[in-house]
Amino acid sequence: MNELLSANIAAGSIALGSMYQSLAHSTGILFENAVSNQNQQNSLAQAAANQGIMQIYSLDTVADAVGIAMMLGMV
């Protein structure tokens, strides 16, 4: 009887250990995905900021082009 009880305790312990190991692995993947998503968001934010700055700098060029077109009577 003691041997059967000991085997059941060992099997339960192994199963619980396996479950904890699987939970730790899943948590690790969750954090990896969170870091990857944050990096992608940072890249998107930087690209959006760059686009905005490029548009601000190009306003001068557009204004110059409109002024020249008006002087040449094209508009």
TrEMBL record:
<protein>
    <submittedName>
        <fullName>RebB family R body protein</fullName>
    </submittedName>
</protein>
<dbReference type="Pfam" id="PF11747">
    <property type="entry name" value="RebB"/>
</dbReference>
<dbReference type="InterPro" id="IPR021070">
    <property type="entry name" value="Killing_trait_RebB"/>
</dbReference>
